[in-house]
Amino acid sequence: MLKQNVPLKDFSNYKIGGEALYFLNAETEQELTEGIREWQAVSKALPENERKIFILGGGTNILFSDAGFKGLVIRNCLGSIAVNENEIVVGAGTLISKLCDFCIDYSLSGFEWAGGLPGTVGGAVRGNAGAFGKETKDNVVSVTSLNLKTLDIVKRSNQECSFSYRSSIFKTIATDEVIISAVLGFKNGNKEEIEKSVKEKVEFRKSRHPLENPNAGSVFKNVPFDSIQDQYKNELQQYVKNDPFPVVPSAKMIFLAGLKGKRVGDAMVSEKHTNFIVNSGNATAKDVSDLIQIIKDEVRQKYGISLEEEIMRLD
């Protein structure tokens, strides 16, 4: 089941990345557990620094290294989906777009905010993805995961997932686990109204985001307004939005720092949305990383703020 020397750029929205030493494509829980057992046997012969495991979802917010990944990349494609009254039990590898369509088909409301959101359910749960003032945690009832070392199944309630802004326990403490599925809660609604709302969100993203170029979505988290230094608050107050608490969009700070269109090689700050770095041709991971550092330095110099990355970087 394990494959070797698989090009990671084929699984990244950025179209950037070297090869994974080992690669597992898991479409069922059985394939996942069998693949991990195979890896446990194989990895015994590898040096310690090559026994790392990385869980890959849709590849929509990841920057792979030009040198690839010396370890195992597991592509989580568990795509089961079923409805139980006002709850949906959904596999972690299910695309957000498919879940939105499912909600429309069953007239389930409460997930319209995710219309056009890229990636998978597992990635959204892990990073507590959000938009339009809503977050994934607002829908989560429980999450089931698999411990990669012991192969034990772990089930957590919403509260036990320790959700926070763009984070969860799976990002901070339970890093040896892979999300298998989630139970998400909704409310009954009108099918036509739900579909209209989802389409509005999709069209909003198309009009505002540079989807015509390879990208990894928002590079930086938005900045909580209460963390802005007093001398800059008057200037930035006009740009505050709720996401879901008062924040200053990083895109606005990057724009005001004069970085729109800034390039390093073929990596470029999007002229359409300045919190996106796009691959305008044959950008390397180093190009993107160097541009990220320039942005951080310029925004820190202008506003005294250290932007926090939302994308993941895999070395």
Q: What's the end-to-end separation, in Å?
A: 24 Å
Question: What is the 3D shape?
Answer: globular
Percentage of residues in helical conformation: 25-40%
- Beta content comes to 25-35%
CATH class categorisation of the largest domain: Alpha Beta
Q: What's the β-strand tally? A: 21
Order of helices and strands: EEHEEEEEHEHEEEEHEEHEHEEHEEEHE
CATH topology of the largest domain: Uridine Diphospho-n-acetylenolpyruvylglucosamine Reductase, domain 3
* Cα radius of gyration in angstroms: 20 Å
Uncertain residue segments: none
Largest sheet: 5 strands, antiparallel
Number of alpha- plus pi-helical segments: 8
| Nearest-integer average pLDDT | 96
Give the class from helix and strand content and strand pairing: alpha+beta
Q: Please give the CATH architecture of the largest domain.
A: 2-Layer Sandwich
Strand line-up in the sheet with most strands? 6-7-13-11-12
Query: Can you tell me the number of structural domains?
Result: 3
